[in-house]
Amino acid sequence: MAPRSETGIMKILWLLLILTQFHHAHSASKGVTASLKAKWPQTPLLLETSEFICESGEEKFWPFVDTVRELAVYKHGESVRSYYNLIVKKAGQFLTDLQVSLLKLSLSLRAYSPTVHTFLQIASDEPPPEACSAFVSVHGQLTCSTKDMKKLLKTAAGRPKPYLYKNDHKYPGANGTDLPVVILYAEIGTKKFNTFHKVLSERAEEGKLIYVLRHYVAEPKKQNILLSGYGVELAIKSTEYKAVDDTQVKDSKSSTTDEEDDTDEVQGFLFGKLKKSYPDLQGQLGDLRRHLLESTNDMAPLKVWELQDLSFQAAARIMSVPKFDSLKLMRDLSQNFPSRARSLTRVAVNLEMRKEIEENQKRLSESMGIHPGDSSLFINGIHIDLDLHNAFSILDIIRGEAKLLEGLHNLGIRGTSMSKFLRMPVTTVEESYALDIRHSAIMWINDIESDSTYRTWPSSLQELLRATFPGVIRQIRRNFFNLVLFFDPAQEESIELVKLAELFYKHKIPLRIGFVFVVNTEDKVNGFEDAGVAFFRLWNYIAEEYDVTQAFLSMVTMYNRVDVGDSLSVETVTAYLKKKFPKANTAKILGVESSYDDKRKAGAVFYRKSGLGALPVALFNGIPLSSEEMDPDELETILLQRIMDTTNFFQRAVFMGQISEGLDVVDFLMEQSNVVPRINPVILSPERRYLDFTASPVADDWDDSMMFSFLDSKDKTAVVSKRMKYLTKHEEEMVYGVTIWIIADIEQAPGRQMLLNALKHMSSSSNSRVGVINNPGGTPSEDNSSLYKAIWASFLTQTSKNTLDFTLKLLKEDTVQLITHDTKIKDLLLQGMDQDAFEKKFNTLDVDFLRSQQRFCQEVLKLKAGQRAVVSNGRILGPFTEDEEFSADDFHLLEKITLSTSAEKIKAKVKLMNLAPRKSSDLIMKVDALLSAAPKGEARKDIKFVKDKHSVLHLAAREDEVFYDVVAIVDPLTRDAQKLAPLLSVLGQVVNMRVQVFTNCRAKLSEMPLKSFYRFVMEAEVSFLGNDTMSTGPVARFTEIPESPLLTLNMITPESWMVEAVRSPHDLDNIHLQEVSGVVNAEYELEYLLLEGHCFDMSTGQPPRGLQFTLGMKQDPLMQDTIVMANLGYFQLKANPGAWILRLRKGRSEDIYQIQAHDGTDSPADAEDVIVVLNSFHSKIIKVRVQKKPDKLNEDLLSEATESKGLWDSITSLTGSSSVEEGDKKKEDVLNIFSVASGHLYERFLRIMMLSVLRHTKTPVKFWFLKNYLSPSFKETIPHMAEAYGFQYELVQYKWPRWLHQQTEKQRIIWGHKILFLDVLFPLAVDKIIFVDADQIVRADLKELRELDLEGAPYGYTPFCDSRREMEGYRFWKTGYWASHLAHRKYHISALYVVDLKKFRKIAAGDRLRGQYQALSQDPNSLSNLDQDLPNNMIHQVAIKSLPQEWLWCETWCDDSSKPTAKTIDLCNNPKTKEPKLSAAVRIVPEWTSYDSEIKQLLKRVQEQKPEASNTGPSQTQTKHTGNQRDEL
User: Fold this and answer.
1) How far, rounded to the nearest angstrom, does the alpha carbon of residue 178 sit from its chain's CA centroid?
2) At CA 1025, angle to CA 1023 and CA 1028, rounded to 5?
3) What is the DSSP string of 772-820?
4) What's residue 1120's pLDDT?
């Protein structure tokens, strides 16, 4: 039977192949390819690798540099592939296998190319000496030879030190401030680098200089790198109105490498198997496959009933194929959906699957707010928002996770228990800690809940939720707000604070006020000699005899009698006492034997135990105010702000049901996680440093200090933790949650005291064990280490109880005195200790292990000899100064913080592992250090599905390896699926993953879910060609795309990329494959990375509208400029990777304002020059705060004052020059015309519009074009046209801000740019701008329009004509919403408008338009004609001047009789006839054809003059791909 069926298949195959031969005789492979280059040249992969390694730790960077110091010699001897493999192999010496995989991905993404290029840009600003492959800069002086460098070093001290950047590579060595700094600019791996490196590293180790390395490539390869990590979309365009240019395009010669899509099965034929079975028929099988695909690429519209279930049908199809093919299929279905849709309609959906999907959706919706059709990606429980994250940020996340996963794996935590540890909630470090204010030493002067003063106030918590006016303080009878003042009554600073407290009390602000008096604590003290004590006793007397309120008011009266600048004196107190209470016995009250001395010490004891800073100090709800906030002038405002903030906190708590009516609000406050028994900034600081315990060193011996010195810091830490011995309270072995290491010189009193304090704390706690590391002031020897040796000998030979008691005895000062007076240590042994064993060990202990310990202190803990520090579960606190104490109370606080943040939870999990107690305690310490050191984000989610048999795709991870737990929730027919499927496929090749994909389908679809083809460009590794050369790089390839639809190409790139098309003869806005032979090639360039910022005026808190910033370099300070908008104080600047200087623009900005502070930049906050480093593909957002200069407080940036000439001068046109005089003359007399166009047809119209403008005016014209969407051919020819017709032009661009609601359709984005950014697109010097649509023909002098009086309105538009009666039914503005909204006003057309930019900016029209757009655009059905609907909608807020009707005539709406007087003719679409634009132009405008042929002649001449070889515009430098690309690494 088998042979016959084989023969049958063969016959069918031959028949089909013969048929397809006829069909494909003339059919060539068609398709579209898109690639994206960086603007900067190739960066060597070796340098990128060094930056990747540096990110794992600067400690690894220098050994790697040493390892590859002459690697470049292999570059020319080896093939490119083997040189790449050599780099990866060398890197592998410093990286784990997982990190090597991530390195390969980062090299494929070229993720570190911007970092390397940043250094090259810094070098270019030096600038480099001629003909030098490497050079050094010694305090600003440059040289290429080591000999000259030595001379320059001698004179370096006389020159200022260079600026060092945060990401500079500083050689580990001496760090003295008086040392000269030498910056080496060189390419690592080259001989010249090695020569310099040898000399500099030696000198740095000797402590003679500071050596900094910056990458420098003397002759970078001209070829630019191809980027990846972006998406490309071919969207299907509506062809309702034909808008395609009929000009023929010469096809490019290139063809697509026929990389077939991965779809293996087509109409039942499994082509993968067929090709294996019949290798000799490869070509014909390819043709057959293509023929079958084309017949299935049926683009006929689907019926509504066929659409309904498409999402479920796609899911059913994906779930039905073998698991390893499912992601591939999801990618194919989503990315080629328009041509796969029909085949999906035939798929049957299993009822169980549908039911399961719905059950899971119900759970996801309730627990996580994920609704049907939504997408979510979780990596190890971390939520990855696909709208915010890109390939580069996901690589960073995966890299960060690698450290955690490998760490836990190395510590022996594997499999499912790993995810339990990862998902364990590690409490984030609090920003502000609070002290518990339920303390008897606080004297409360009022109580909101019980005092009669407040009895009329309501007491219900629900009052908090009642609506009030903003800023009103609610009067509720609860102690929500508590102020505690710690002060010494006799201190001058206390007076103003008490007066402020009285102000709050008198005005019945709902603030409970308490005092802690910190006065003299001696037993016998005379109140007649100490003002503080006298005050305290008088307070007690009044409080006892009368009440606390009376005592408080008396205090205020006393303070009012103190002169300004004085403090409270005994005389003031006694005088007040005698006057107010004449009958009282003064001596009995104030004297030594006072009866009113109760609790005098309590305040001082509480203050000392609290660890608060210098007096006076205030606590608001327990949180200490900083010394700046304690300024009496500021304090009132700060307290009112805190009251408002706390109101919000309580409102939330009441709303969420966290607090109920019966609960004491102070108890509720004091049970929050940020409340601590003591405030110690060292312990509570959010800046935390941790040891890394995750290494498993080969050698684990510290007895040989020489061997120990060769270990890296992780290995050193692992050895120390393994060899450490502990003092414990209990004899039996126990599991301890906190491990404390004391690092100190035990021979010195401060060191002994610190260890004693730790042991004192340990005696009252069962959670801690204490280890000791000796750090003597000198080199360890027998003489300076005897105490520590004794403790260590006891550890090795005695029981833990005896060791503890013996240690406590050794630490006592009288014991130390005995030892200094020659008492032998063996004579101090306690009863019950094993004397012989101790003595033998003590006498034979070698001090070499102490040298290892000291090396650990210096190299890992970064301590100097003799310095003290504390390590708690790997967290390093210190070094402490000599007089800084770390008391038993501090150890108690440290333990509480360590346990509550993480250790308690880790201990519970570790106990379940049933390890030996010592092992468990070690593991808790190590895991705590690992998890606490990891950056804190939002809590990790644990995604659970109700059922997962039919709706969740499971891909298992490889056993016994570190794996990532990935959960994707996605509807297979969404844009997110188009991106997610290829992303998961690539990540699966890079790292070991356990994947679950839940198909989150939408039911009852009413329209096509996807209207585009899509490719996500990303590869797991650098790819090579068969001849071992590097492939040109990743490219988006669209093959086997249906030829009938009209397509538009869109690049979907990371948020901060500004991309432009630089080469393609085709119209990328209108791709029609039927009319193309071969392949449409589109080359794009990453023109700029975006620097975004927010700017505020410090004195007003408002954005300084119209303020201008410039960005540049030392040599060229003005390279880019921008204007600050009022919305969020937002501004954006364009730059390439490098270090840039941000300044206020010369002119009014610099005259009126100065920069006061900045965040997110790379220079210190007080530096004059604001330096911003752009060194990655990530977004960079900075904050700048400015202030008006003291003498310019009343000046307004946007006032009518003359604008500086400098700005106009800087905008030199791309043709002709501009001098100051010329600028002056022309400023008023230049006609500024703005227009936008996309696609070859509209660019053809645009040229004609320009010609018509020029023909009708004698005034010089400057055209402004939106650069974002212009084709390469237009940008290439515009300079020639400018030259021929004598106009100026400028290409402007503005990236859509991320905070403004995004549009996805290209046409709507262009419309948005027409109206939303008018205030920031043009320089302030441009007073008026006229927008003219590309498809308009001008018949009058536009100067008339510029001169027209707008009567105070910021802009003027022409209303729509009413005269053509037959179009009445199409005038949508005459009915419904528009009729009522406009209220008899006209609806205006956006094809022509004039903007008075000065007025527009002054009334903040741009900010208002953006605000309204933000509100309306959330509804997809609003603003259907965005550029037109928005100004008409805002007509009541931003007035429109209606221009005379003759300024815009359009056949669709205006009758024929008005045409002769028309000043411009617009070719607007006709909804009735839907006539194509081109035929309408020829018919309606007689002069159009002559304009068109004139421009065609010009373009023809340009084409003929162009040298054959060049096919690119003036702005692009392209190089041809050559076959042998040996050198580009």
Assistant:
1) 36
2) 100
3) EEE--SSS--SGGGHHHHHHHHHHHHS-HHHHHHHHHHHHSHHHHHHHH
4) 83
Q: What angle is formed at CA 1400 by the lines to CA 1397 and CA 1404, rounded to 5 degrees?
A: 135
Exposure string of 880-893, with b = 16+ CB inside 10 Å and e = fewer, is beeeeebbbbbbbb
Q: How far apart are CA 1073 and CA 1042, in angstroms?
A: 8
Count of other CB atoms within 10 angstroms of residue 723: 15
CB neighbourhood size of 1426 (10 A): 24
Cβ proximity of 788 and 727 under 8 Å: no
Cross-strand bridge partners of residue 730: none
Dist. CA 394–CA 390, nearest whole Å: 6
Q: How far apart are CA 361 and CA 375, in angstroms?
A: 12
The pairing of beta strand 738-744 with beta strand 726-727:
unpaired
Look-up: residue for tokens 């014209």?
A: 1261
CA nearest neighbour of 262 among 329, 321, 326? 329
* Cα angle for residues 49, 82, 107 (degrees, 5° grid): 30
Q: Is the preceding omega at residue 616 within 30 degrees of 0, hence cis?
A: yes
DSSP bridge pairs for 880? 868
Beta-strand ranges (E) seen in 650-791 are 675-676, 689-690, 726-727, 738-744, 768-774
User: The tokens of 1283 are what?
Assistant: 């030259």
pLDDT tens-place string over residues 1319-1373:
888 887 888 999 999 999 999 999 999 999 999 999 999 998 888 888 887 878 7
Which of 723-737, 963-977, 1110-1124 is predicted least confidently? Answer: 1110-1124
Cα torsion 384, 389, 394, 400: sign: negative
Residue 721 pLDDT more than 90? yes
What DSSP state is assigned to residue 1214? S
Residue 1015 pairs with which residues in a beta bridge? 232
Looking at residue 1415, what DSSP letter applies? Answer: H
CA 683, 684, 688, 690 dihedral sign is positive
pLDDT digits (tens, 9 = 90+) for 101-137: 999 999 999 999 999 999 999 998 888 888 889 999 9
Q: Compute CA 888 distance to the chain's CA centroid, rounded to the nearest angstrom.
A: 41
User: HSE-up of 471 (CA within 13 Å, CB side)?
Assistant: 1
Degrees to nearest 5, angle at CA 764 with 758 and 765 = 80
Distances from the Cα of 820 to the Cα of 250, 813, 846, angstroms? 99, 11, 22
Please give the DSSP secondary-structure letter assigned to residue 1449: B
Give SS3 for 241. coil
Q: Give CA–CA dist 472/685, Å, rounded.
A: 34
The number of angstroms, rounded, from the C-alpha of 994 to the middle of its chain's C-alpha atoms is 27
What is the distance in angstroms between the CA of the first residue and the CA of the last residue of the chain? 58
pLDDT digits (tens, 9 = 90+) for 1052-1083: 999 889 999 999 888 898 898 888 888 999 99
Q: Which amino acid is at 3?
A: P
Rg (CA), the chain: 39
Q: How far apart are CA 804 and CA 730, in angstroms?
A: 10
Structure-token pair, residue 811: 């630490």
Contact between 473 and 515 under an 8 Å Cβ cutoff? The reply is: no
Q: CB–CB of 1041/31 below 8 Å?
A: yes
Alpha helices in 724-779 (DSSP H): 749-763
At CB < 8 A and 24+ separation, what contacts does 643-650 make?
643/473, 643/481, 643/509, 643/510, 643/511, 644/471, 644/473, 646/480, 646/481, 646/620, 646/621, 647/464, 647/473, 647/474, 647/480, 650/461, 650/464, 650/480
Q: How many CB atoms lie within 10 A of CB 1162?
A: 20
What letter does residue 958 receive in the DSSP assignment?
A: P
